[in-house]
Input
Amino acid sequence: MTRIDNKPSGAGNAVTVRGLVKHYGETKALDGVDLDVREGTVMGVLGPNGAGKTTLVRILSTLLAPDAGQATVAGYDVVRQPRQLRRVIGLTGQYASVDEKLPGWENLYMIGRLLDLSRKDARARADELLERFSLTEAARRPASTYSGGMRRRLDLAASMIGRPAVLYLDEPTTGLDPRTRNEVWDEVKQMVGDGVTVLLTTQYMEEAEQLASELTVVDRGKVIANGGIEELKAKVGGRTLRVRPADPLELRPLASMLDDLGITGLASTTVDTETGSLVVPILSDEQLTAVVGAVTARGITIASITTELPSLDEVFLSLTGHRASAPQDARPTDAREEIAV
Amino acid sequence: MSATTATATAGATAADVRIPLRGHLRHTGALIRRNLLWIKQDPESMFDALLMPVVFTLLFVYVFGGSIGQALGGGQDGYVQYVIPGMIAMMSMTLSQGVGTGFSQDFNSGVMDRFRSLPIGRGSVLFAKITVELVRMLFATTVLMIVAVLVGFDIHRWGGLFAAVGLSAVFASSIMWVFLTLGVILKNAQSVQAMGFLVLFPLQFGSSIFAPTKSMPGWLQAFTDYNPLSTLADASRGLMIGGPVAHDLWVTLGWSVAITAVMAPVAVHKFRTKT
Output
């Protein structure tokens, strides 16, 4: 495990996890996980299917008992103080859901009552949250008639009823189309603005980049890296230089020229035909200077030239040795994934 | 969230809180409301409770009633008096399956995870399901009694009728713990229904509900005599029509207590530990 940023545990942490273990027979769903989520931050837990993300959330929401290790949420122990813990958390997930047969309003009212709000307060809170998540017009319709995005919004509203200190978002946009996904992200960003601490699990780099300030990368039940997103990217090292010549016909000659140049340690260049640019992995400032020098010396018109930090997908690949994206998932791919790494 | 830091230190040493009785009642009430709203949203879910009493009464009275009645010595009219008290017992058994299938659906839809992550007693979810199922059962029994009167059943003892319905409800709520357990451990509602059918069908027909056990072979009689559905049906008959009641009543109550004592903890345990 690579610890980049050693945060003090205890005070200031909304979630503290130490040596958490959960085995299912031979399968090690969690194999000694440590995790700290500071108050008011969004911690992204990133990993492929089967990495143990959902098991972690289920333990932290008292749905599952750990085999070993400790976890506290807002100071409450998951094993010894489950009832108090349940009062301070909100759960939205792939699995935890709303009652589809019930209208949106009834779902929220019911949860309000289950959280010991008075009838009057439960009614007011249901109205308020429906308004807040733009569901007022659909309030009296059964949730089964809602679109995917509306259902997730209702799910988010349901998890906010008890004004939780810590909110778990377990793969909140899995199975949503890109437009709806952006909608959910906007809602989450607003909730974070309100000061709630969020533990977000996701298999999408883009989602973690959008929402999380810190990241824990898990694979096969183990934490393989953690730290700030930018730090993680920097740690994996390397930037990517993109050069887009005004004339796309210049692309291939430019690529072979750079390969023939023999700049020390420079990996081979790739041509990204979709964006019409040349992609050059850069390991040092000297390399960058040499490449840019060579390109300008050629005297062609350049439409754009940019350097990028590696995408989280690339980060994951270099940390685990395999790709993070689940193959069975039909998700619109990021343009950057087209480039061979 | 500055409040979290305060609770963080306070929570570290404190033991877990208990839920007060009022809390349990509030939670159970909210969940009963939810289950009743299901019926309102989906009135078709009441079809079984509405049609089963009608179909079964007509079927048994007019298809088998003549010949069984003849053997009983009272003809079809005599059979009506015989079979209706038993039907109350049968109906309550068949409907009690609903708790299992409903529970299974809740687990598969994910709404159960929501409930289990809320600070409520696990029992509230179970009790609410049972309460609503008893309401459905009461509705079905009312329909049954209307049909029964239409086909010629004489209610001479109202007190006995209510006592018989009450006894069926008591026994059914004990059986519901079995179905709740099945609802928790089986994969889906279809499996619960199939398993329920396998359990209930022999119990219902291998009993004195539809025909007296005297003509059955000895080995079957041994089974039917210990079958709680026989004693439930016989007790109901005694209560509604007259005749000896005490023995059947006590045996039925004994079964109810025994089944509840064993199955309620099993259901709650399976529910708690379900992953």
User: Anything to note?
Assistant: DSSP finds eleven helices and no strands in chain B. Residues 75-109 of chain B form the longest helix (35 residues). The radius of gyration of chain B is 22 Å.
